[in-house]
Amino acid sequence: MWSPAKYGGLKVVRLPHDSIWKPDILLYNNADVSSYKSSISTNVIVTSDGNVTWLSMVIFRSSCAVNVKYFPFDEQNCSMLFSSWTYDGFQLNMLKVGQDGDLSNYIPNNEWTLVKLHVVRNVVYYSCCAEPYPTVTYTIQMRRKPLFYVFNMILPCLLITLVALLGFYIPSDSGEKVTMGITTLLSMTVFLMLVTESMPPTSDVLPLIGLYYGITIAIVSFATAMTVMTLNVHNKGQRGAEVPNIVRKICFGVLAKILCIKMHSTGSATTEKLASKCAESGMSSYIQLRKSNNTSNMKRDNSPNRMTVLDFLPADGMDKDTFHNNLPENGGLPPTSRFSMRLGLAGTSSGDGAVSDNFERQFLRVLNRINQTIEMNEIRLAEEDRRNAIKYEWQQVALVVDRMLLFVFMVTTLGVTYGIMFQAPNSSRFILGLDSD
């Protein structure tokens, strides 16, 4: 200290920093041993009343416990503790100028937003010494800007998940349902690797974005497994097993109405009735033919002048070409008497009647065989229609299950996204646009 009047009114003197005594104030949680070497040596300002001011410039790097629970919507509080290394509180006292730090020269950061810088003075007593040791702690409260991570990690994950769920909308006949699910799983695995590279390695807590990726991967995996199940349902009709009534009632009676799916009638009941009717008609036709064979003589006796089917058949020993050549052009009866085999005429001899009966029995056997062949074809076609109806019904069941799973997984994905992302205290600020600073 000096009197300015004795020194020509000199009140302030600037001296080199190494020419005066300086306290050994250090950063206790220092993370860079070379930080003091990088400090800029500035002059010391000394006033006439004994006040000494040293405005030194230095870059500090301190250790900080980072909590990545709400990453990328996290908020970190890092402290910088300053105190003397050798002087106690009786020899060197440390005081704080104000409650908050000076942020007038703060340069904004692109990744973090500085929320607050507050100062706290504490007095620490160690077990070795009875003297107090004052400390000054600067707590830096900063909030991460999540736009980069939302746009490059969260949004692609959500879109990939929604695209994977659209696999339920792909027709089962395309053969790309399972392939699409596996492809989306691989894509999400790549994004998960990018997330792990962006976060500090820690096992204390699972990050929010890691939890989101894990749940979405589980959802896509389960959706792929359900796709395999729906493909099995789609192809189940090929084995001929009918749809159970309880499944038909639930899918067609309840779920189809809820999901607004228009069901088309399969016609399985109609084809079953047709098949049974064809089987019954085939047996009845055979019985009618047998009856007509047994009663042919009676018809000949009762209708002597009536033409039967045999009138249009070739006589015994006549080949097919001769028969067609002797047919009249106008489609009438054959002119020769060999084609006029009337049954029951007065002039018919007993020998001709025996030939006619033999021919009629052979002809009825041929007709019976033709009728059986036709009926068997009808039964086969009806059975094929029934199987096709069963296949179509199982395909409709698979369609209803696909739409139901699409709705369930879509709601689950959106609910999980909302539930996980809004756990963070700062996620709502980002959604509402309050983090623009």
From TrEMBL:
It comes from Ridgeia piscesae. Residues 153-420 form the Neurotransmitter-gated ion-channel transmembrane domain. GO terms for molecular function: acetylcholine-gated monoatomic cation-selective channel activity; transmembrane signaling receptor activity. Residues 2-146 form the Neurotransmitter-gated ion-channel ligand-binding domain. This is Uncharacterized protein. Its main location: membrane. It is a multi-pass membrane protein. The chain crosses the membrane at residues 147-171, 208-231, 404-424. InterPro entries: Neur_chan_lig-bd, Neur_chan_lig-bd_sf, Neur_channel, Neuro-gated_channel_TM_sf, Neuro_actylchol_rec, Neurotrans-gated_channel_TM, Neurotransmitter_ion_chnl_CS, Nicotinic_acetylcholine_rcpt. It is found in: Synaptic cell membrane. The lineage of its organism: Eukaryota, Metazoa, Spiralia, Lophotrochozoa, Annelida.
